[in-house]
Amino acid sequence: MASGIFAVLDDIAALMDDVAVTAKLATRKTAGILGDDLAVNAEKATGFLSSREIPVLIAIMKGSFINKLIIVPVAFLLQALYPPAITIILVLGGFYLAFEGVEKIIEFLFHRNKEGNEVIAEIKNDEAAEKAKIKSAVLTDFILSIEIVIIALGAVLNQPLTIQIITVSIVAIIATVGVYGIVALIVRMDDAGYRLMQKSGNKGFLNTLGEILVKALPIVIKSLAVIGTIALLLVSGGIFDHNIKFLHDLLPNWNEMIKQLLFGTIAGLMMVPLFSVGKKLIAAVRN
What we know:
By secondary structure, this protein is mainly α. The protein is built from 11 helices and no strands. Helix 3 (50-81) packs antiparallel against helix 7 (161-187), helix 4 (84-109) crosses helix 9 (204-243) and helix 8 (189-199) runs antiparallel to helix 9 (204-243). The termini are far apart.
């Protein structure tokens, strides 16, 4: 009886050792996309009143967990039944990410100053705008999560099914908790800085550090807006580059990042009019 228990414990220990190795490998392979995920979600989680930042972030994180709960089992099912479906889903998701990236650029380039009554209307409609931004963030997270799960799964395809499932699940949890934990720290930088200034009596090293944190937040947010937009285009371009052979073989002498940025931008420019027409058709049907 005792020997049987020890044998089971030994098997569990061996399994955990294997999972530790495969999880480390899979996390390393997804590091790039996790960085892009961080930039995109940090940008989407900002722009709210201070009191609403954490509730909004929690709502997005809950959506991210639900995304992973859907994607992980579906990925294993598709891998078993019809592996090409994963590539098709990735490419379709890439077009959406490209659209989001180019749409942000277009909004920035052709942004017009709002009249006073429009600004008032926006302030009154904060709750609706918040819900819309959460919905957009969760949808973007869904597509980025597909990419993360597929890359993690691809890194352990030669392992037994049990190790595959545990490894991909661990990477999915790290991708959610790690990314949104860092985002939470970023969006609360100014509050932390303000408290340091209060505790220091507005003098000394802590006060200087607090001032730096408060002044740095707007710069960080603006930087993340730019980085997040570029990340959307790079991720989408990378999806096309890695999953469409014609594009992978195209421009072989170009730098990978520049090539992927170009693919993402072109795809986004193609999608903007299609999405615009689609939105108008949906609005017409609803009316």
